[in-house]
Amino acid sequence: MEPGSNGEEHTSWEDLYSINLMPSELLLKFRKEVQGIRVGVNLEFYNAPANEYQAKLVLKPLAPDRRWKFIYEPIHQDVRVISKKIPITKFLNLQVGLGHSFQMNATGWKWKLTTCLGGDGISRIRNKTSLGLFPGMDFRFGWRADYVFPEITGALGTGEPLFNMNSGQLHASLDRVEAILTHSDGAY
Q1: Alpha-carbon span 136 to 155, nearest angstrom
Q2: Has residue 188 been placed in a domain?
Q3: Percentage of residues in the chain with pLDDT exceeding 70?
């Protein structure tokens, strides 16, 4: 392509956007609700950066104000108790966890701040979207969109171009697909 008015090369449309629909995480979750506790078995498959498989046993209360969940990973022999995400602001959450690794014979705790917005010098939206097919069968999709808004600038008498436009960028991906099967003794 020919250079633009500001001496930079035009970029192709393929450089301005990309959409990746191949998820890097596939999860199959089996859940059973027993006396106010949800017992779950998660089978997790990761295909990027390396193929990996992980199984988890998850226990958490069904109460709307649940404050914790218990996770046991038999392959790594890890046990963790994790708090629910505690909202600090509208877009910022804090999560705290305590864990023990039987392989390393070590106990420790972690914390993390999370948000659905933000990124490394680029704007990012991360979200999960759920789709209930019928009672007891749900799909959840984890997706991400990194974007740079279009920008129009110009100048007169400064040696800069009279009109300059940056088209912006969008890079979106479907990162995670979960199939969730829930068995409940209660009526729907």
Answers
A1: 60
A2: no
A3: 87
